[in-house]
């Protein structure tokens, strides 16, 4: 039985779990810097651009017989290679006038191609190193120890400190470059600092999730967090939470699925690094679908609910119009003659109006209740107020206002109704000389 506390107390599981959580937090913070500046592909490019440097770092550690300093050589080699990739991207954009996405993709394939070529050469000359090189493609999070916890904790603290100190500058630089330039904030060193953090995150992060998957940890948490907020500070916070959650859940499901399949005799392995990325992408997908304000499914549900409410109000408005003509006892056919609904659908909607107390049924006839008269009259009032506003204030022709009023009557708020009433001097008739009901739905 896998208990959650094991991931924080077990000497074998503690390093990968806490280390990946801190890595996810720091990379998510850095990812926000790229995300808000619409440079998310930069993380993908720099992670692939670091691959040749990683291979060169491994070869140098062997050449100098300093295998105990392998991490240092990899860090230096990967950083130099990533900075070279960034310099080339900047050169292509400024000097050659190549578009951002074009230059990023060119550098990505160029450096990664060189890396694959070097790896193929190493496979022939140093076969014992090739497996170690390949591990940096997909990460080796499961081999992290307690020392990596302190390393990632320092990195996370450093990133958090930089973001906190330069928060105002980052805000201006990301959303109002003209103001930042006028205020002297748009300086080369700040741009360099932000890109330095991205490079540093890429180089440090490949230890856990690898070169190929690193960009996902820079993109997925900010993408998920963006669905819940429009505020930059909250975006940083939520991104960090999503990044930490991905780090923990990736470790948890990696161990859980590996144990489950080993019990069945399948002996399938679920590497920690790729599992972290899968979890991060899954959380981003859930956010895109179910976020309260921006989730795709939630938006479709709100649209469907609005259509249902619109149909109910239209049916109520039709009943109010008929009762205004003296037809207080309405049959199903009278109410539905202007609608293309089936009788079953029409009965369902009328049943909803009955539940709301807007209508009642007596002797198979439908009668408006006081609440229905008030609600229906208000819809008519909003319709006719909007028609009068279009004609009097905007100069729209009388024959052209009905369609717009049909749409606006369902979304005008009480505040707008009050403003329209004041603006039009509490009118009594619409442009068609029809009476405008009062706020209680009654015609005076």
Shape type? elongated
The strand order across the widest sheet is: 1-2
- Give the name of the CATH superfamily of the largest domain: ABC transporter involved in vitamin B12 uptake, BtuC
Order of helices and strands: HHHHHHHHHHHHHHHHEEHHH
If you had to describe this structure to a student in words, what would you say it looks like?
By secondary structure, this protein is mostly helical. Strand 1 and strand 2 form a beta hairpin. The longest helix has 32 residues. The mean pLDDT is 87. The chain contains 19 helices and 2 strands. The chain starts with 5 loop residues before the first helix and ends in a 21-residue tail after the last helix.
Features:
444 residues; mainly alpha; ABC transporter involved in vitamin B12 uptake, BtuC; Arc Repressor Mutant, subunit A; 2 domains; two-stranded antiparallel ribbon; 19 helices; elongated
């Amino acid at each position: 039985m896998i208990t959650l506390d094991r991931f924080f107390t077990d000497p074998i599981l503690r390093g990968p779990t806490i280390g990946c959580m801190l890595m996810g937090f720091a990379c998510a913070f850095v990812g926000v810097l790229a995300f808000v500046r619409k440079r998310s592909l930069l993380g993908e490019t720099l992670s692939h651009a670091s691959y040749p440097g990683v291979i060169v770092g491994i070869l140098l550690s062997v050449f100098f017989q300093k295998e105990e300093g392998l991490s240092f050589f990899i860090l230096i080699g990967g950083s130099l290679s990533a900075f070279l990739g960034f310099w080339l991207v900047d050169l292509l954009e400024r000097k050659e006038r190549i578009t951002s996405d074009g230059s990023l993709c060119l550098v990505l394939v160029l450096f990664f191609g060189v890396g694959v070529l070097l790896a193929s050469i190493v496979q022939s000359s140093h076969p014992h190193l090739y497996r170690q090189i390949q591990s940096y493609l997909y990460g080796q999070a499961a081999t992290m120890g307690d020392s990596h916890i302190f390393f990632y904790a320092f990195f996370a603290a450093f990133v958090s400190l930089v973001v906190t100190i330069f928060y105002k500058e980052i805000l201006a630089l990301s959303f109002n470059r003209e103001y930042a330039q006028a205020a002297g904030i748009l300086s080369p060193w700040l741009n360099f600092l932000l890109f330095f953090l991205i490079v540093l995150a890429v180089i440090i992060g490949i230890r856990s999730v690898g070169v190929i998957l690193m960009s996902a940890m820079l993109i997925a948490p900010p993408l998920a967090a963006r669905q819940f907020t429009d505020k930059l500070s909250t975006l940083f916070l939520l991104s960090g939470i999503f990044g930490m959650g991905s780090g923990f859940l990736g470790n948890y499901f990696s161990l859980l699925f590996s144990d489950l399949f080993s019990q069945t005799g399948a002996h399938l392995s679920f590497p920690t690094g790729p599992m972290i990325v899968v979890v991060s992408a899954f959380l981003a997908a859930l956010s895109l679908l179910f976020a309260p304000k921006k989730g795709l499914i939630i938006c479709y549900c709100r649209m469907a609910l609005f259509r249902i409410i619109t149909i109910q109000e239209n049916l109520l408005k039709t009943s109010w119009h008929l009762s205004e003509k003296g037809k207080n006892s309405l049959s199903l056919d009278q109410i539905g003659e202007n609608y293309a609904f089936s009788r079953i659908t029409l009965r369902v909607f009328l049943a909803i109006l009955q539940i709301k107390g807007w209508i009642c049924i007596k002797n198979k006839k439908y009668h408006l209740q006081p609440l229905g008269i008030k609600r229906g009259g208000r819809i008519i009032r909003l319709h006719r107020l909007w028609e009068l506003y279009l004609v009097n204030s905007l100069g729209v022709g009388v024959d052209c206002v009905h369609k717009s009023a049909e749409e606006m009557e369902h979304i005008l708020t009480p505040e707008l109704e009050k403003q329209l009433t004041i603006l039009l001097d509490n009118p009594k008739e619409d442009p068609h000389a029809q009476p405008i009901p009062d706020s209680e739905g009654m015609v005076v």
